[in-house]
Every structure is written in C-alpha cells, then in structure tokens.
Amino acid sequence: MNKNFKSAAQGGFTLIELIVVIVILGILAATALPKFSDLTADARAASLKAARGSVASVMAMSHGQTLVQGTANAATATVTMEGLSVAMVYGFPAATNLLAAAGLSSDDYTITPTTPSATSTTVQIAPKGVADASKCSILYTVSTATVPASLVYQYGGTATAPDCK
Predict the structure, then answer these.
(1) Pairwise pLDDT comparison (120 vs 35), residue with the higher score
(2) pTM of the model
C-alpha cells in the first residue's frame, strides 16, 4: 500500500455540496423575501387599530366619569383623567384634547384638523405615511345634544394591510 494515500474519509464539504447549499438558500430567500418586504402596511394597520382602541377607551372612561358626576347631559363639562383636564360635550370628549387624553401625537399620526378646536365636530386620525387616509383612518365625531359621539373606521370596515399602503 501507498503510505501517501489515506484510507480514512476526508473532512469537510466538497465544492459541489457547497454550491447546492448556496442554491437552496438562494431559492428559500427568493420565496421568503416578498413576505417580509412590505411589512409597513401591516404596521400601519396595527397602529390604526391601537389608536382606535385608545380613543375608544378614553371615550368610555370619560363618559363614565360624566355619568358619576351627573354631567353626562351637559353641553359642556370637564373631567380629569390622570392629571389631564378633558373637555366634554354632552358626556363625551370634545375634539380639543381627545388626542392628548388618548396618548396620540402628531409625530405618529396625521390628524385632521391639525389642531382640533372647540368648534371641531370631527377628527380624522391616520397613521403617518398612509397614501390615502380615506382608506386607512378612523373618524371621531363629537357628540351633540341628540347624538352621542362615534368612532368608526372611516371607510366602514376594519383596517387591513392593503388599505394602509
């Protein structure tokens, strides 16, 4: 026998094995990448749902406080929530400081009107970067003497990723 020839198996991978692994990884990356490439729309839809939940919570908690105080039917009133004075209109938050009470800011959301006033009857809230706010926003309507405040997805459905591009 030749002493230079080793009968033991060689360690490591052959060039063909390495190429096959690289090709398989490339195919997996090519199929998985589209699923992760456009997560911004999903994030905007989730952000909108979170904003809706926050505003709905403020509506419910502040309305409960007006019921306890006996000011639910008053044209104007004020409740205090975590140190913040919230103006109320017929038992529900006015547009003026609804967003502050809900913890929403113009850094994350596009708010129309930009600065809600005491005369604002509606407030539209959309995540920043949405191409068409009419498809991915919520609309808060201030209560009147005959109609309580409402909070709806502006286009009448639930926010989905295709709507929030």
Answers:
(1) 120
(2) 0.74
